[in-house]
Description:
elongated; mainly alpha
Amino acid sequence: MDAHNLPSMLLFHPAARLSIGIFRNFGMGILFGLILLGGYARTEALTLRCFAALMVVGVSVSFSLWGSFRVWSLTILPMLGKQKRIIAALTRIPFWGIAGGLGYTTVLLLLKRFDLFPAQDIPVRNLFITGCLIGAGIQLISECIFWIILKRIDKT
């Protein structure tokens, strides 16, 4: 399969419907929040407020990543033509980083503004870089899992 077939397979597949996407992203967001919670629990005392805030951050990152895939599919993918899958995957990495950085930073700054989560906001660059690494890392893992599953489906 070449990169040109990806939009029809991924965007128009029944699993890509809005309702399924929202449900999937809330689930992935809670998972991301739990991962963030594990890292946060090592350095700070946990409260219910912190737990809820990290779940919101996780959901924000998840929806940002979903949106970045949609933007990539409508802007970059048509330019790729008949390129191989690996080229298409590599062009997504900057989108994952930016989406993770925006989703993570925006929500953390809002939570800090309303005194719902203690975040070190100066310099904000550190929050953004952390979000970029989280977004790209999580999406890279998800992408590897997706391609392994896709390879197994192609063999059958």
